[in-house]
Please model this.
Amino acid sequence: MVNETEPLLVVDDLAVEFRTDEGVVKAVDGAAFTVDRGEIVGVVGESGSGKSVTAMSILGLVKSGRRVRGAIRFRGRDLGTLPAKELRAIRGAEIAMIFQDPMTALNPVVSIGRQIVEALRLHDRKLSKAAARDRAIELLALVGMPDAAARFKQYPHEFSGGMRQRAMIAMAIANGPSLLIADEPTTALDVTIQAQVLDLLRIAQQETQAATLLITHDLGVVAELADRVVVMYAGRVVEQGDVTTVFTAPRHPYTVGLLESLPRLDRDVDELHPIPGSPPSLLTPPPGCPFHPRCPLARDRCRTERPELRVVGNGTTVHRTACHFAEELAALPTEVTR
Amino acid sequence: MTVETAAVDRLERLGEEVLRVDDLAMHFPIRGGVFRRAVGAVRAVDGVSFAIDQGETLSLVGESGCGKTTTGRMVVRLLEPTSGRILYRGHDLATMSEDELRPWRSKTQIVFQDPYASLSPRMTVHDIIAEPLRVQGKYRQGGADRVSELLDLVGLQPEHANRYAHEFSGGQRQRIGIARALALDPELLVLDEPVSALDVSIQAQVVNKLRELQQRLGLAYLFISHDLSIVRHVSHRIAVMYLGVIVETGTRDEIFTAPHHPYTQALLSAVPVPDPRLRGARERITLTGDVPNPANPPSGCRFRTRCWKAQAKCAEEVPQLEDRLGTGHPSACHFPELLTVLPTSGAAS
Model:
């Protein structure tokens, strides 16, 4: 059943584990967020926060991991329980993915054009070869590929990093997806090329009206592109809300810590305020709040009771945080809120 | 001699010139044909000049392939330059033989980008930090004490000495790399993207440690980075590189508040800023195309193929690094223009 009253994508209490020689790694431990039609949601977090595993789980691409809890509903259907055939029909059509490294995501022995044609014809059997070819060239031109007809015949190694990423975006939007998942789409690129690709993602989003789930470690990219932001730490969502609220009035100590440890391009900062310590081991996550060993506000309750995501503030948009003492944090003067 | 007593001398010489690099070039041969003859050259660095004072941080910034890492490696003589001079307190390291270099090697040390690849997995932390001392024959007198002191200096515990690198996080490994670089009391550290592989919360810890060490020990840093936000935070002076040459250089404030080379302006405008309120409020310059092949750089100005201001003169004449606008700092552009790319509010320091 297609449910149009629910948000486009609902990630509900998702938990993913990996079995390793050292024990069970709880990579994602109760992640929950939604993506509405046409909006850009940024998922930020550092290495090991679970942001990529969450993204890959949506399309069932985490082969070695085991989903132990929760559901991922796309238009009301639980993607985790869909038969493989139905999931394949969704992949690359209704939900498309843009990966960090186009060199490993593209097939090196098939020309760029043929790869796009393949993507088109896989989901539209009635499309003729000639029509698919025309459409592929149109797509390459749309993503700003100079001389698209000539580029159609070239192979991935003949493209620069930025051009490969453009080709991958062309392929991702080929079937007019309603959800684009972009996993660190600009991390491997130089900053002037990153700016080109970010502009392109904006154009692709406007062109297709697709909702975009943008996975990144770069808070600048999120501030630049996203409507809403989801902050992950140690496999959990610790804060989410509209991007301006979260960046200017964060209500989780981890988000505050992240923003205060950033050197800024746009102003002089006397001293950076790093978060002490390092992220916890996901083999033996700390009890209670996963951030408590590094948190300046931590007290007994944080060590025993796991904080659930709850609504804070009384803004016009929904702002959620998983901190017992969010109200106390709001009263503290911080550098980021100036 | 402890690390701190050795620093006294350096602290007295703050502001004295430590290093002067003069018209430095590195051309890597491209070999082809049956006899592997040189059929061309990648001009990775093509005539770069700068100087660094004791206690000062000079940053080299630019994108992949601009020659910043190659320059850093020449300064510590991991690479032998094709031409140019590396004057270390007046002594030219560029042409010295291995034997002649040995006494100078301890003066300039390097910290690498990847803390996972730059530490031996088979050595304990103690042995990693002690290695430079052993190589220079300085371990026998109090080497073990010195290793403990160095661990303390970079914020690691004495008990860490007997562990192996794989037991540490990225940030801790980078501290080990810094301790190793400091073992021989260097005056100049080449820091090649020292925090680029680290998560932001850890990055800040290492950046703060580097700044603290500079103040305590009077070190000079050649800081190599592609990250302009970090560069703004750590630098006294900055040199912006593009395709093997310096296109603009000046103090931190000059580069960030009054850039006049179009490439510097484009770089500054391209970095996403973590403040959603500035979205759309900033001057945006999006460059077209990619960096040209350094084996066959454009004639005249190397940036002209991506420059929105390029004219006939740019293809014909190489622009020299000059202060054409009288702003106090030079750029290598025939048509420089002042442009405020960043919001000016917090810019004054």
